[in-house]
Write a structure and sequence with these properties.
Blueprint lengths: L1 H17 L4 H17 L12 H31 L8 E6 L5 H13 L3 E6 L4 E6 L2 H22 L2
């Protein structure tokens, strides 16, 4: 059932984007939707309606935390750059993703990279993210707690 909804949603999106409501274009949209859904991995679990409010709250908290981290990191980087002494101690730290799915690990790495002053440069097969940071002395204390919070929220979102 979820696959049929996915195919129909993709086909409708295609038709709306092209603006062509001819039957041949609708059939092409259905074929494109069918191919995309066939190439995607099937969902691991079924959607449970009772989990939707918890998922929405976790998503809202995740977005809020990302916005807060981007703003605070931007201010910290601006302070470092504007300081005449340029007090940076760059380095690379290993951050275990603590996420169960590859998608959650990728989103966690994206959240880290969005924050100014940090960039995930590699993720190994065990899910460890190697991250370059401008100030390694302050990053190590903050990283584990921040990653635990991100992985908990991503686990609630992708249940």
């Amino acid at each position: 059932m979820i696959r049929i909804i996915g195919v129909l949603t993709l086909a409708l999106t295609y038709v709306l984007l092209t603006g062509n409501w001819q039957i041949s274009n609708i059939i092409i949209g259905l074929l494109i939707g069918l191919i995309i859904i066939a190439l995607l991995r099937p969902p691991k679990g079924s959607l449970e309606w009772r989990n939707i409010p918890r998922t929405i709250l976790a998503l809202a908290a995740y977005v809020f935390i990302m916005i807060r981290d981007v703003i605070l990191s931007g201010l910290q980087v601006a302070r470092l750059v504007l300081d005449p002494k340029l007090p940076i101690r760059p380095g690379i730290i290993a951050i275990p993703s603590q996420c169960e799915s590859e998608l959650a690990t990728a989103l966690s790495a994206h959240a880290i990279t969005l924050a100014p002053g940090e960039m995930v440069i590699e993720i190994d097969e065990n899910g460890v993210m190697y991250t370059h940071t401008l100030d390694i002395t302050k990053a190590e204390a903050y990283v584990n707690e921040a990653q635990r919070l991100r992985s908990d929220l991503l686990g609630k979102i992708f249940v």
